[in-house]
Design brief:
Blueprint (H helix, E strand, L loop, with lengths): L2 H25 L29 H5 L14 H20 L3 H23 L4 H18 L4 H26 L6 H40 L6 H4 L2 H27 L3
Length: 261
């Protein structure tokens, strides 16, 4: 298949996946099914027909409003569809037509869903984290890296490390620290990226939370209590995306420059 045809196909497939991801982002935190009922207008509850549900294009043609009642449709829908399409395009450019491309595209799609659900609702659905864990382990033998052994080690080490941090922090501060969703998410990250990538994700997530999250909370006047308002999963998701794309050079730089190894 010519590269250009592969890229177009990957982008279109990603946009379709992004359309479904929008449904997951909205419904899973609310405990709703992503199968039934069909997608409906939030204003008049009219089912959205197929030709009004084409990723990105339909929203543009309808000018961001329902065909029937003209109620506004959130810009989140085309943005997520476009972002997921670009994720799948980037994976196809980087890895070609391969399982490694699918491995990469699925991981970043799941990470995007987690970032948005945690930012919107302060919750990480198990369907994304534990479902992603299963996908990471299933694809590891064929798609790697990491290998199945590294994927298992990454999942277990990440899960155990976050539980230890949770227990120690709760004893030290005598208040809830870390959510189970964050721990499940990091098990998924470990399955996809291996132990090194997972540890880098935790480091980057903590740094991003301090650099970006705390100033935002300060502006909102919500600095206290910090743990109640900071969507850690969103920053871990950003860290995971960075670790996925540039993890090896970052680790090499850290080992040589910081540790002198």
């Amino acid at each position: 298949m010519p590269d250009q045809a592969l890229w177009i196909l990957a982008t279109a497939a990603g946009a379709v996946v992004g359309s479904f991801l929008n449904v997951c982002i909205v419904r899973w935190p609310a405990g709703e099914s992503v199968v039934r009922p069909r997608s409906r207008c939030p204003g008049c509850a009219q089912p959205i027909v197929l030709y009004d549900n084409i990723p990105v294009l339909s929203w543009l043609l309808l000018r961001g409003a329902c065909r029937h009642c003209r109620a506004p449709i959130s810009v989140q829908y085309p943005v997520v569809e476009l972002a997921t399409g670009l994720i799948w395009l980037a994976a196809s450019i980087r890895f070609g037509f391969s399982l490694q491309a699918l491995h990469s595209a699925l991981f970043l799609t799941i990470v995007l869903g987690i970032a948005l659900t945690d930012a919107r609702e302060m919750v990480i659905p198990d369907q994304l984290s534990l479902g992603g864990l299963v996908l990471g382990l299933l694809l590891a033998p064929a798609a790697g890296p990491p290998t199945i052994v590294r994927a298992l080690i990454g999942a277990v080490v990440s899960y155990a490390l976050l539980w230890v941090i949770k227990v120690v922090a709760e004893k030290a501060f005598r208040k809830p620290a870390l959510g189970v969703g964050d721990i499940h998410m990091m098990a998924m990250v470990g399955a996809f990226l291996g132990p090194g990538g997972a540890l880098l994700t935790i480091l980057l997530g903590a740094v991003l939370g301090l650099v970006i999250g705390l100033p935002v909370l300060w502006v909102r006047g919500r600095l206290q209590p910090m743990a109640s308002y900071l969507p850690l999963g969103t920053f871990l998701a950003l860290g995971a995306a960075i670790a996925h794309g540039w993890g090896e050079p970052i680790l090499r730089w850290y080992l040589s420059t910081v540790l002198g190894l």
